[in-house]
Amino acid sequence: MFDENDLKHEFVQLLSEDGIVKNEGIPQLSNETLIELYEWMVKMRLFDEKMLRLQRQGRIGTYAPFSGQEAAQIGSAFALEKDDWIFPSYRELAAMMVHGYPMKQIILYTMGNLKGSQTPKDLNVFPVQIIIAAQTLHAAGCAIASKLKGEKHVTVSYFGDGATSQGDFHEALNIASVNKAPAIFFCSNNHWAISVPLQKQTASKTIAQKAVAYGMKGIQVDGNDILAVYQVMKDAVEQCRNGEGPILIEAVTYRQGPHTTADDPTRYRNDDEVKDWIERRDPLKRFYTFLQKKGLIDEGYESEIKKKFTEDIDRAVAEAEAVAQPTTDEAFDYVYDKPHKLLAEQKREVQRFLAAKEGNGHG
Amino acid sequence: MANLTMIEAIREAMEQEMEKDDRIIILGEDVGKNGGVFRATEGLQAKFGEDRVMDTPLAESAIIGTSIGLSINGFRPVAEIQFLGFIYETMDQIAAQAARIRFRSAGRFTVPMVIRSPYGGGIRTPELHSDSLEALFLHSPGLKVVIPSNPYDAKGLLISAMRDDNPVLFLEPMPLYRAFRMEVPEEPYEVPIGKANVVREGDDVTIVTWGAPVKLVQKVAEESAKKGISVEVIDLRTIQPIDLETIVQSVEKTSRLIIVHEAVKSGGVGGEIAALVSEYALFSLASPILRVTGYDTPYPVPPIEDDWLPNAPRIEKAINKVMSY
Ligand SMILES: Cc1ncc(C[n+]2csc(CCOP(=O)(O)OP(=O)(O)O)c2C)c(N)n1
């Protein structure tokens, strides 16, 4: 009989919550790289805060903030090579940007511009997924393709803890494992799926252990410890490249803000819990302390980069806002490779309608 | 030319395209060693290997979802869903994912995949094996939906589907798999998607149909001719995009329209065609448009199938009715 109590529940953590090295397995990264990681965290936190403000000003649409999850997203995406694939959820914008997705386009996406989801040609990033867990299967297929082609690329799908209840998640782990696909299933367990807490989502002790049923490796990592996430991901990538099959990573983290800008988390979350994660367990603070103790950064440096990144972000916003609004007839152009007759006729109808509207001076 | 059944024509189409294009891979339940439950993929795994003809776990959403990932990363998958009644399991992956990816990524990612599935009634299957669900996919922009009614079309349409850069749902009428043989060219050829076939010319009534009922309607048309009623029969062949031009031209000539399909009446493709014809050719009509279809019940148990499906007396009655105006 398999007993959950017999399972080993290893939790990978390299830095303690106060930024002290706990574990010898710390990745050998140069000082420049450590600083680069931290800069990504700061930049992404500022970006997230900016997006919230823009949403309140009515300049972008509904937005799903990721503050609190920077270490999980940045640490994991940083361990990838350029040609590796990412299949993100709506919340994994930082991972996309670390992998090369232009910030301007992310902003365009939040503005509801189709061009925001048009991944640049040389980048292997899929548009964000709204349907929970659907992307896990796309990633499984993409990884199988890499294997069939004999390419060494690894495919990562990002999803939340809620996604692990969906059939697609289980089908994806199963088919990827049967095919020994180079796929990494990266769960950002932020403890909440909108208002549903983890204990109501799953009765298993960890999400990582779900891998066991599919004959693949699962690992649980402190998702607010960027060095631990990076190291676990690096190992997973190597395992995939060596043809050892897929892996499930559970990064234990927390969403500090609301589910989206349309959500009020005070209805379901207790203040003490939120406070604890923000004040005591924030991933940026932890890494800052570590770097400060190493003598790599100080407050002056911090305010300097914040100033620079604020300018960078403002520039990206201005660039996005300068892009023309999507036109109605553009919507018809991407349905099929060539629009068929009835669709083309509908497109002409919109054009005529809009021309008449403008002609009447109501444009 | 070879004399082939529809299932042989379908297999030949896959085999020939796989020879030409090594991006094509087949996947599904039992498609490998077993050659598919209807033997559509018989011998293909032995010829092309397990990497190109893959038996998948028993998971329809996984079959379609992984095919999407395979498409995006350079392959042209031909996925088999064992029976169309199981397609509900894949609804998200087909309608919300495969069909929309071109749109969602503003053209950056496309899904050149084919989903093959046997469907259609009259052969006494267990529950949920015979349902005609094509209307669900007419309502899903970004997909094409193709239904052959004979071996020649089956081969040509399937080749077109495999060469198409859009996701194509290819529905194979089960009762036709081995119903008859037909001369089919040995070399690969295309029958264009989106083009209906006027299988019989006539002047008094137009009947639009597809799939298994095509043969039936042709027979009824022959009988009607003996009674002096000239019926034009259109095999639609493609549900999405619908070849409205051919239908309208025919209605302008005959001024009467009947649509025959196996699927349930409400919300069926017949309603769509009737609406289009009333938009584009209302004043050519000399009578109401009638539909002869399955009834609005779940697909019935075997003993009552034959009365449930469109049959000759029901079609004859509809012809008499439109002629009486
Ligand atoms: C199939 C599906 N069902 C429901 C929703 C509505 N919904 C959006 S996000 C969400 C919670 C997801 O939680 P989780 O997977 O943990 O990811 P997180 O939002 O925490 O990153 C729900 C229920 C959806 N988008 N898709």
TrEMBL record, chain A:
Q: Where are the transmembrane segments?
A: none
Domain of life, per the record? Bacteria
User: Which stretches make up the Dehydrogenase E1 component domain?
Assistant: 39-327
> So what EC number does this one have?
1.2.4.1
Note the InterPro entries from the entry: Alpha-ketoacid_DH_E1_comp, DH_E1, PdhA/BkdA, THDP-binding
Keywords from the named record = Oxidoreductase, Pyruvate, Thiamine pyrophosphate
Q: Which GO terms describe its molecular function?
A: pyruvate dehydrogenase (acetyl-transferring) activity
Name the cofactor(s) required for activity, per the record: thiamine diphosphate
GO annotation, biological process: branched-chain amino acid catabolic process
Q: Which reaction does it catalyse?
A: N(6)-[(R)-lipoyl]-L-lysyl-[protein] + pyruvate + H(+) = N(6)-[(R)-S(8)-acetyldihydrolipoyl]-L-lysyl-[protein] + CO2
Relate the assembly described in the record: Heterodimer of an alpha and a beta chain.
Summary of the function given for this chain in its UniProt record = The pyruvate dehydrogenase complex catalyzes the overall conversion of pyruvate to acetyl-CoA and CO(2). It contains multiple copies of three enzymatic components: pyruvate dehydrogenase (E1), dihydrolipoamide acetyltransferase (E2) and lipoamide dehydrogenase (E3).
Q: What is this protein called?
A: Pyruvate dehydrogenase E1 component subunit alpha
Q: Which organism is it from?
A: Pueribacillus theae
TrEMBL record, chain B:
Does the record bear Lipid biosynthesis in its keywords?
A: no
Q: Does the keyword Oxidoreductase apply?
A: yes
InterPro entries linked to this entry:
THDP-binding, Transketo_C/PFOR_II, Transketolase-like_Pyr-bd, Transketolase_C
Q: Which Pfam families match?
A: Transket_pyr (PF02779), Transketolase_C (PF02780)
Q: Which intervals hold domain Transketolase-like pyrimidine-binding? A: 4-179
Keyword annotations: Oxidoreductase, Thiamine pyrophosphate
Q: Which cofactor does it need?
A: thiamine diphosphate
The molecular function terms of the Gene Ontology recorded here are: oxidoreductase activity
Instruction: Note the superkingdom of the native organism.
Output: Bacteria
- NCBIfam families listed in its UniProt record: PRK09212.1
Name recorded for this polypeptide: Alpha-ketoacid dehydrogenase subunit beta
